[in-house]
Amino acid sequence: MLNPDMVVPRLGPEQSLQGSNGHVPADQFRSPPVAAAFARPAIAWLSARPGPMSEAEFAARLVRDLDAKDVCLVLDVFRNDVLRLTGVLEAAAAMGDVTNFRRTSHALAGAAGAVGAQAFERACRQAMTRADLQPGELAATAAEIRRCGESALVQAATLQASLARP
C-alpha cells in the first residue's frame, strides 16, 4: 500500500496544498535533485532506448545497461515520485481540481514510463487525456491509478531485491 506520509506532509485543517492562486504549487510536481553523475548516463540511456518493449524486456535492458547501483537509484526515485505524487493526486481529487489532477497524472505517467511500468503509465495517461473527466470521477480514477501504482512499486521492489542478492 502506498504511504504518502513518507513524502507528503500531513496537512492540518487550516492548511491546503493549494497555493494563493487556487492551484497546487508547481514544486509539488518536481522530483528531488539527482546527482549529475547519475543523471547524465540515465538520461542518455532513456533517450536511446528503442521502440516499444514489454515490461520484462525493459527491466532486462535496464539491468543489462546500467550497473545495479544506478538501477536501484532509478527505482528509488520512481518510488519516491509515486508516493509523493499519489498524495498530490488524491489531494487534487478531494478538491475536485481537474486541472491539477491531470497535471499530476502527467507527472506520474512520466515516472512510470521512465521505468517501463506500462499498465501504470496507461492508467495515468488515460486520466490526463480524458476530455470528459468530471470532478465527481476523480476519486475513483485516483483509486485506479493508486492500484496500478502499488502494483508497479511491488514489481520495482522485486527487481531491487533481485539486484541486492549476491
In short:
Keywords: Phosphoprotein, Two-component regulatory system. The protein has 166 residues and is mainly alpha-helical. Helix content is 66%, strand content 0%.
Radius of gyration: 16 Å
Ends distance: 28 Å
Overall geometry: elongated
User: Using DSSP, what is the number of strands?
Assistant: 0
Look up the CATH topology of one domain. Four Helix Bundle (Hemerythrin (Met), subunit A)
> Element order, helices and strands?
HHHHHH
Instruction: Specify the oligomeric state.
Output: single chain
Level-2 CATH architecture of one domain: Up-down Bundle
- Return the CATH class of one domain: Mainly Alpha
Tell me the number of helical segments per DSSP (H or I, 4 or more residues long).
6
Averaged pLDDT: 77
- The structural class is mainly alpha
User: What helical percentage do the residues reach?
Assistant: 55-70%
Poorly predicted ranges (pLDDT <50, ≥5 residues)? Answer: 1-18, 34-38
Strand content: under 5%
Q: Major β-sheet, in short?
A: none
GO biological process, one term: phosphorelay signal transduction system
Pfam families: Hpt (PF01627)
InterPro entries: HPT_dom_sf (IPR036641), Sig_transdc_His_kin_Hpt_dom (IPR008207)
Organism: Rhodovastum atsumiense
Describe the structure.
This protein has 166 residues and is mainly alpha-helical. The longest helix has 28 residues, at 68-95. It has a domain at 56-166: Four Helix Bundle (Hemerythrin (Met), subunit A) (Up-down Bundle). Helix 3 (68-95) packs antiparallel against helix 6 and helix 4 runs antiparallel to helix 5 (118-129). The model is unreliable at 1-18 and 34-38 (pLDDT under 50). It is 66% helix and 0% strand. One of its GO terms (biological process) is phosphorelay signal transduction system. GO terms for molecular function: protein kinase activity. Pfam families: Hpt.
